[in-house]
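Protein Record: Sequence and Backbone Structure Tokens
======================================================
Tokens: labelled as protein backbone structure tokens, with as many entries as the chain has residues.
Question of interest: how does this chain fold, as expressed in backbone structure tokens?

___
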Amino acid sequence: MIGFIYWHIISTFLGLAQKNISAILSPSPPLTIGAVNLLIAKLKRAKVIYNVQEIYPDFLIEQGGLKSGFVIKILKMLEKFVYNQSDAVTTIDDIFYKAIIGRFNNKSKLHIIPNFVDTKLYKPLEKTNLDSKLFLKNDHLKLMYAGNIGHAQDWQPFLQAAIQLRNDPIDFYVIGEGVMKRYVEENVLKYKLSNVHILPYQPREKMPQLLAFADLQFIFMSKEMEEHGFPSKVYTIMACAKPLLVCSGFNTPIVNFLKDHNCSKIIAGGDIEEITNEIVGFLRSISKIELNEMGQKGLNVITKHYSKEVVVMKYISLVTKLID
């Protein structure tokens, strides 16, 4: 908490120290930084664009981490204040847009501008320079998840699929840290899953090599979180020409984004047994050639619509309209 308060104080003073500010882009979370930037903009006579990456306090409520009715009421008031006092608000897709548009007095303030990916850093690689003791060099189909091992993911389908596929030439790599890592590790030991390899976080600059190593990236969203967040790793995976295996609800941001691009296998709906069976069936039947074709389609989408150059121009256009 002290660090959180300290960060806001430092951010305020750093913002006030800047000269000749025309516009402030304020990404969330946290929701409170939107209020800080409104103060800075007022004093500096600048325009504010508030960028909604996750919907707060909805995200905290669904996660179960926020139960106080009083605190929820205050945060909802703060949310509407930030939205309506900002000169413009951007969000990443149509799902988020529909979720929050009713909270605006002036609905024309809300715009959809997607996230972008640095295509100079994240790009297809043919060779990798990874430790062969950790990253096995074999002809197995390799799946990977790299990121926070937390409550945003549903680890049950992953574990059930790994159990059913333990004798198949298929390896799973889980890279990262988080509150659910011990749970995953305990189940790997319990079921003697030699096909699952759990590794710590790797340096960011290694991500393109990690993505190149794996044939397929998997993201299994938890039901509690799937409607309120969009994993930014989706863009980087696609930029590296890698396909995705995704489990999520039908009308969720990740499914809404991927469904028309033919670069992923989407499993939406069903109980744990049905989901697991579909995962196993897909992995046993798909070829590496087909996966490569899916990955190339994803790269084409990123290059055309989600590169840094394309998305930055959309923000420049919005800022220009605000300050003219």
Summary: Strands lie at 23-28, 47-52, 88-91, 110-112, 141-146, 170-175, 196-199, 216-220, 244-247, 264-267. The chain has a mean pLDDT of 92.
